[in-house]
Amino acid sequence: MTETVVEMRHITKKFGEFKANDDISLSLHQGEILALLGENGAGKSTLMGMLSGLLETTSGEILINGREVKMKNPRDAKHYGIGMVHQHFMLIPAFTVLENIILGDEPIKGGVRIDYAGAEKKIQELSDRYQLDIDVHAKVRDITVGMQQRVEIMKALYREANIFIFDEPTAALTPQEIEQLMKIFRALADEGKSIIFITHKLKEIKEAADRCVVIRSGRVIDTVQIEGVSEERLAEMMVGRKLRNTVEKKVVDQKQVVLDVQQLNVEKNSRLMVKNLSLQVHTGEIVGVAGVDGNGQSELIDAITGMQKIKSGSVEIMGKHYENKPVRSITEAGVGYIPEDRQTVGLILPLSLAENLSLKNYYQKPANKSGVLNYQYINEHGRKLIKDFDIRSQSEQISVGSLSGGNQQKVVVAREIASDPNLLIAANPTRGVDVGAIEYIHEMINQERNSGKAILLVSFELDEILKLSDRIVVMHEGEIVGEIDPKETSSQELGLMMAGKKVQTKTQEAAN
Amino acid sequence: MNLSTTLMTILSTTLVYAAPLIFTSLGGTFSERSGIVNVGLEGMMVVGAFSSSIFTLSFANALGDAAPWVSFLVGGAFGCLFSVLHAVATVSFRADHIISGTVLNMLAPALCVFLTRIFYDGKGQTPEISQGLGTVTVPGLSKIPFIGKVFFTQTSMVAWAAIVVAIVCWYVLYRTGFGLRLRSVGENPAAADTLGINVYRYRYLGVLISGFLGGLGGAVMAQSITLSFSISTISGQGFMALAAMIFGKWNPLGAMGAAVFFGLAQSLPIIGAYIPGLSGINSVWFQVAPYLITIIVLVLFLGKSVGPAADGENYIKSK
Ligand SMILES: Nc1ncnc2c1ncn2[C@@H]1O[C@H](COP(=O)(O)OP(=O)(O)OP(=O)(O)O)[C@@H](O)[C@H]1O
Ligand SMILES: [Mg+2]
């Protein structure tokens, strides 16, 4: 019998009157990878927050190596060898990667001075050992989401944790990066470390975990051995019903061009991120943009939505030019945008749900009556969307910041789809969303398509791209390196193209 | 007057006027780096100026030569004490930082002049301080040709001390664990919290250090420029220090450089007469210049320079 390193007994956590965790018990053995599965808002992050000292339990006890402990703050958790990788990045954009990693545990030389060189050496060793590629001297604000995730992982490794908690570490990673992370998990487990791993991706649970605890509405539904249980069964346990994994595509008119990008060049930090890119999206069409993170997808979207200056080239929406136009004029042209980073771009966390849901129409009637906000309407509108989009929240008045990650995502999706756009730009629209809600968001996006809207979908989730797209273009180093028909391709072929293998395509032939 | 004498006069006057601004802008840097906006620097200077004046007037005889320096530190200590108000209001009670700072600015002069009247039989001004932080001529170094004359003759000791303190502050903020943590709570308190950094403690420290340095700044003002305390001892220097901090991009060395620049601006009424070509100008312009320059610099730089990301944001820890 292996040793039990963590035992949580009858944990209950209340926020006000609301029970986020209700009598949860679980145990973690040495060298084990334990998955936590549950819908958005089921209470997974809350439970782990208590184990990492960030939240205090309302009742129940936590045992580490058989001894009861009181976890008052993250220092205590660190003392017990617990390291947590949070669902939302806990990084300081203005600091370098190195500073972010050592913060709070700075190696000191000569009494006061931070031993940066020593820290760097230690990080280098860890990064060689676990093949975590990070640039320690870069500022965090300049690195990709994938690297930010690696930095978060490095923070836990650097603190020499024995018990790792990973809260949705793969939500923002590309398939390659996920594979790498799974390797790291196994390496850690082989070294006798224990891991609790939260994810909404059943494939990863099947691949990496030994056991899985399924949580629904703050309660444990079941704990199962992964061996011998299918992905479908896991999904069913979690949402309480069977799921479909195809969408129904109606035949629609795809003649009219909605988005027409020609010869687009976009520069960021004086590096050319989008190179001479041309792309069209028609009515009733979902165009999927596949590619490894950091190949210009974000810049392309930012340029179309007006978040970033265009160097040269043209962007036409419904036949009108929108290069370097204010964001509002672009949204008013009927562009909906589900941004990649919901917390910094998509939402204003301290504002209420209803207010966030009205961010696109607060200045128009009926949300606004001669300059005064009409809260009656705003709240009603909020309640309606909460219901329509199945956002799990106690009320429309609470701040978006206190929602679970997946439900925050649903707020963005709800607002953008409800604004009835002609062109919907969706960047990783199901990041951090549970399988039930993914099915739902996919349905919504597909419905938009079926009703004749144009959709530009950027996603690192190949399955998502393959499932939804009518056409797939692959981006590599700022260029479109190929275009493929999702019906005639596989994830393998797509993966190859994403790695930069050029394929002769229709668009390029036309250009020649 | 020959060139070296002119330069010596300009430099030493500039330094004299810069010293209070350097200390205070360093104070502002600590506070704002920890995420607490500090418009109350002016008030902290008033308290520093008042307490150090009273102290030196009372104990000059007993302490002898050390009196100015001890009362200088006393000014810092009282500034620190006074800043507790700001820390409690903003960190513990999550008040708006600007409002709390403004309260400090309104409270300090009223309180200090009131106390002055009590201590000095109803007079709103203290008697003159006989022994201030004056200028010194550094023996030996002042013999170096030209340089000795410009830099080490009748120069302000406390200004050189301020420059050294600025370098120390930079080292503390950018090379020590304490500095890294202090800056982290001003950038992203939630992230610092997950690493076990006590956000409230570091913010308290940031404000208290700022109170101490602001108090020192006020003390220097009273003891090397006005040589007494009254309502007009501190007249906008706190805000100039704030401007210097912004101009210096919340970096101690930058703040110091900016403070020296403002010091030059402030010393214009005196040195204007020595600068050929400027001597004909009506001195009113020189009086107005420092304030005008402060406003212009703020307008030009406030929009552009980026301060700590969470500066002015209260942190609410969820339990
Ligand atoms: N600080 C808080 N105040 C009030 N309610 C909260 C707070 N934190 C979380 N909640 C609520 O507790 C519930 C559980 O949230 P939690 O973040 O643990 O969900 P989760 O299982 O991690 O979901 P996801 O998969 O979407 O990340 C949610 O309904 C959420 O709104
Ligand atoms: Mg969560």
What does this structure look like?
The complex is a heterodimer of chains A (512) and B (319). Chain A has 512 residues and is an alpha/beta fold. Chain A has two domains: 4-239, P-loop containing nucleotide triphosphate hydrolases (Rossmann fold), CATH 3.40.50; 257-334 and 421-511, Rossmann fold, CATH 3.40.50. Chain A contains 18 helices and 24 strands. In chain A, β7 and β8 form a beta hairpin. The longest helix of chain A is centred in the middle third of the chain and has 16 residues, at 175-190. Mean pLDDT of chain A is 88; it is low at 504-512. With 319 residues, chain B is mainly alpha-helical. Chain B has one domain (3-126, 146-301): Orthogonal Bundle (ABC transporter involved in vitamin B12 uptake, BtuC). Chain B is 70% helix and 1% strand. Chain B is built from twelve helices and two strands. Chain B has helices spanning 3-33, 41-63, 67-92, 97-119, 147-152, 157-175, 177-187, 189-194, 199-226, 237-247, 252-271, 283-302, and strands at 135-136, 155-156. A two-stranded antiparallel ribbon of chain B has the order 1-2. In chain B, α1 (3-33) packs antiparallel against α9 (199-226), α2 (41-63) packs across α9 and α11 packs antiparallel against α12 (283-302). Chain B is globular. The model of chain B has no long low-confidence stretch (mean pLDDT 89). Bound molecules: adenosine-5'-triphosphate (ATP) and magnesium ion (MG). Chain B: Pfam families: BPD_transp_2. Chain B: Keywords: Cell membrane, Membrane, Transmembrane, Transmembrane helix. Chain B: InterPro entries: ABC_transp_permease (IPR001851). Chain B: It is found in: Cell membrane. Chain B: It is a multi-pass membrane protein. Chain A: This is ABC transporter ATP-binding protein.
Helix content of chain A: 25-40%
Strand segment tally of chain A: 24
Q: Helical element count of chain A?
A: 18
- Derived structural class of chain B: mainly alpha
Could you say what the CATH topology of chain B is called?
ABC transporter involved in vitamin B12 uptake, BtuC
Ions, cofactors and other ligands present here are:
adenosine-5'-triphosphate, magnesium ion
- Beta fraction of chain B: under 5%
Rg of chain A to the nearest angstrom? 23 Å
Distance between the termini of chain B: 70 Å
Q: Which regions of chain A contain 5 or more consecutive residues with pLDDT less than 50?
A: 504-512
Radius of gyration of chain B: 20 Å
State the largest interface: A-B, 31 and 23 residues
- Large-scale geometry of chain A: globular
What would CATH call the architecture of chain B? Answer: Orthogonal Bundle
What is the C-level CATH assignment of the largest domain in chain A?
A: Alpha Beta
| Overall CATH class of chain B | Mainly Alpha
Domain count of chain A, please report it: 2
Cα separation of the termini of chain A: 67 Å
CATH architecture of the largest domain in chain A: 3-Layer(aba) Sandwich
CATH homology superfamily name of the largest domain in chain A: P-loop containing nucleotide triphosphate hydrolases
